[in-house]
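User: Predict the structure for this protein chain, please.
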Amino acid sequence: MLAFFRSLANAFELGTCWNCGCASVTATALCSYCDEALPRWYPRCCQHLSDIEQHLTADQKRCRYWYGALRWEPQVQQLMTLFKFRNKAELAPLLATQLAAHLRLCYQGQPMPDCIVAVPMTQHAWSQRGFHQTALLARYLSAVLQVPYIAGGLRKIRSVPMQHMASQSARWENSKRSQLALHDFSGSTVAVVDDVLSTGATMMAAADALYKKGAAAVDAWAVVYNQHD
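Assistant: Here is the predicted structure, written as structure tokens:
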């Protein structure tokens, strides 16, 4: 409902661009200039994270593909800060639209995954934030891409410190065995949705849980890929 009223307001130039504050007439709530200026990654930009292998055990399978739509630059940092830490849940359609467009390019000529799951949150983190940001993204992606969303497909089984505050090695150690898959994914290709992909530790914890429940392949989808360069 909120997204509908924002779209209606923008249609009459009553909305404002999330990035620059100028009048916006687009359904995504960015003005045409800011939308064009978004720092996008090229397709398949993070398919191979160079340092991920050193963190995997001998029996662990890695994700099949790693996709991120936007670069971690000031314009995107501002949007993600508003979304995650300023309770701007209404940014979910804008961010999901950017990722969906990127994924359509990445999957040209091959089928999409069978289903989508979201990186989970603890109940405490959910109550503090007031909404489940990755689940919101996953729901919008499901609607746009016509891929089923499995609500509650993953559960966080132990608390993990704030990952953006931790070192790379600490992120991997914190994430180990932190998630549990709650459905039977036998033979399915599953896409895991996160907001920001950095070291790959959270995604691999999700993938590990899904593989243990029979997933044939796991693809990592993130709105933002932070390459640390």
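The first strand starts at residue 15 and ends at 16.
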